[in-house]
Design a protein that fits this description.
Blueprint (H helix, E strand, L loop, with lengths): L20 E2 L17 E11 L4 E10 L4 E9 L5 E6 L9 E3 L2 E7 L3 E13 L8 H4 L5 E12 L4 E5 L18 E15 L2 E17 L7 E10 L2 E9 L5 E8 L5 E13 L5 E10 L4 E19 L5 E15 L2 E14 L5 E2 H4 L3
Antiparallel strand pairs: 1-10, 2-3, 2-12, 3-4, 4-5, 5-8, 6-7, 7-8, 8-9, 9-11, 10-11, 11-12, 13-14, 13-20, 14-15, 15-16, 16-17, 17-18, 18-19, 19-20, 20-21
């Protein structure tokens, strides 16, 4: 049973078909035994948006034990379109907790209550466009001190689990296709404080946390589109469209409409609007849940930050992916919510670094 008492064996996974899934356990909030694969990654992400103030942020720690380093990202959406951003790659993996370069996650009640703290610098940028060229943006005079303290409470049960092979062992996604074998998402409500330089805010809003473990290659898939939005205590969605490395299209996720029940979604349809820079400005997203109800959401991107993951290949070429991290206003009928829209595109080096998801019409 899940932490909210819901059976998990038939949960929809992210593999593109129904297959055995090990249900989540409370201990899945913590680190898992390190597997021998060189790209094993224990990754945690959470975002919080205060829609009343139009500010928020997302935070991530990736622990790559077999490669001997961690990844830490803090991204803040601030008044006036400003962005606070920090990325670090410390040459260690914490054994005493989930911590990297001043950012720390704690889990007070597994799958229910959690906290994060950050104390350290951020680069204060005029807007997200500066992140198109981080080397130019990340100059010493742009650094300011930041302090962040946020607490989160679950709004819904966690959605996901660990994919299993037919033999009951963890599923082998196939060499070069490692991405999200074990994974869960959970809608949350959060509050806390944020200080950037001499400015301070109290935050109260909604968000989503995400945890995955297993081998991870960011370039393993051509593209995905991810839409998490917690509207309020009684309604939340998390919808994903993925073009897998084997060419299969996956449309999955959940909708929560009160009562502690998650309903799987399918039949996802997406139309994205882009500007001249190939940045998403908005979208129309529709899907059907397993109760047969069709929903249509209009998304308006409020602020965007382009992030990148580059991997050097043995032949010297660079394999690239771009992830657009978009703070977004979601509208469904009379409901308005604030969440994120995340657009990952592999850039095809054989075709002028074209964004593969955009070429696919998504």
């Amino acid at each position: 049973m899940s932490a909210f008492g819901r059976p998990g064996v038939a949960d929809m996974d992210y593999s593109g078909r129904y297959r055995p899934v090990r249900p989540l356990r409370a201990e899945d909030d913590f680190n898992h035994p390190v597997e021998p694969h060189p790209f094993f990654n224990e990754s945690r992400y959470v975002h919080l948006i205060d829609g009343r103030q139009g500010i928020g942020g997302w935070f991530r720690i990736g622990q790559r034990a077999n490669q001997g380093f961690s990844e830490m990202t803090v991204c803040l959406y601030l008044p006036g379109g400003r962005v606070g951003f920090m990325f670090a790659k410390p040459a260690y993996v914490s054994t005493g907790g989930i911590e990297a370069a001043g950012l720390r996650f704690d889990f007070d009640v597994p799958l229910r209550q959690s906290r994060l703290r950050y104390a350290g610098p951020v680069y204060l940028l005029a807007d997200g466009a500066a992140m198109e060229d981080p080397r130019t943006a990340f100059v010493p005079q742009a650094q300011v001190d930041a302090e962040i303290a946020l607490s989160f409470n679950a709004v819904v049960p966690a959605h996901g689990g660990e994919l299993l092979g037919d033999d009951g062992a963890p599923f082998d996604e196939g060499e070069g296709r490692y991405f999200a074998r074990a994974h869960f998402d959970q809608s949350v409500r959060g509050h806390g404080t944020l200080r950037v330089g001499g400015e301070r805010w109290s935050l109260d809003g909604y968000g989503l946390r995400d945890h995955s473990w297993g081998p991870r290659l960011w370039q393993a898939i051509p593209w995905y589109r991810w839409f998490p939005c917690t509207f309020d205590d009684g309604f939340a969605i998390c919808v994903i469209v993925v073009q897998k490395g084997d060419g299969e299209l996956l449309e999955a996720g959940f909708v929560h409409d009160g009562g502690g029940t998650l309903r799987h979604v399918h039949g996802v349809r997406l139309q994205t609007r882009y500007d001249a820079r190939n940045w998403p400005t908005g979208f129309t997203l529709s899907f059907e849940d397993d109760a047969g109800r069709r929903s249509q959401i209009e998304g308006e991107v409020l602020a965007s930050v382009p992030c990148r993951h580059w991997r050097r290949l043995p032949d010297g070429r660079t394999d690239k992916s771009r992830i657009m991290e978009c703070m977004t206003r979601f509208r469904l009928g009379e409901r308005t919510g604030f969440g994120m829209a995340e657009y990952l595109d592999h850039q095809d080096p054989a075709d002028g670094d074209v964004f593969e998801g955009i070429r696919a019409g998504r």
